[in-house]
Amino acid sequence: MSFSVYEKIRTPAILADGGNFLIKIAESEKEITEAQLLRYEVFKLEGGHGATNHDLHDYDEYDEYCLHLVVIEKSGGKIVGTYRIQAAEAAQRGHGFYSAQEYRLDKLHGVLDDALEMGRSCVYAPYRNGTVMGLLWTGIAEVLNRIRTRYMFGCVSLETTDNATGWAVYRYLKEKEYLIPDMPASPKPEFMLPPADENEIEKILSASGLKLIPPLMKGYLRLGARVCGEPVLDREFGTIDFLILLDTYKLGDRYLRHFKVSSEAVKK
Q: CA angle 107-220-14, nearest 5°?
């Protein structure tokens, strides 16, 4: 599937050189397949949800409408990290945004016309020391340089289905003012997270606090992202998801330098 915005993103396919790693947009079926194999290993096998898929790939109908950002270890040629990207143009001609499975997005309609949906982020277990995740962000920064889209959004997951933990995270985010005040996205009924006992929520907050927030969500929040709606329960993947939205025009200079995004990349 060819879209004009994707041509700008993947020309050239190599986004950056990370020393021992190469950061690029997957060009071949082989590279896309390897990214899907990594996703299966992380999301299905590690999470204990792999029995329903016997070809060892994590894929869905959205994959053909997305680009696949990958980090490749040069010495062995292995893909050790991946991120899935979908532009508004592709969502409009394809199956819509993946996040719309879990959330009503109608109040975000104007915003999402100039947005990239990010998802399926994962890193091969032996490389989860922060380096590869940082390289994925370097790739995203170069994507922003190439197309100058304003917003990034997508679901960030807690690796649990415990509703008290989900509501504890939500309470923490609310207290720290990480929520968009008017909460423009609302969970679809079939994904709503069941309520939890208030005493259990407070107990979890008192014991864990900031430790409840997964590293990927912390990264987005540091960049200025905000949460758009209440948490949802994804039974297929065994996670609790939060929808986040980042206005790239508001990225601070510190992060622009860190991810090598020029100031022109976040201005019209």
A: 105
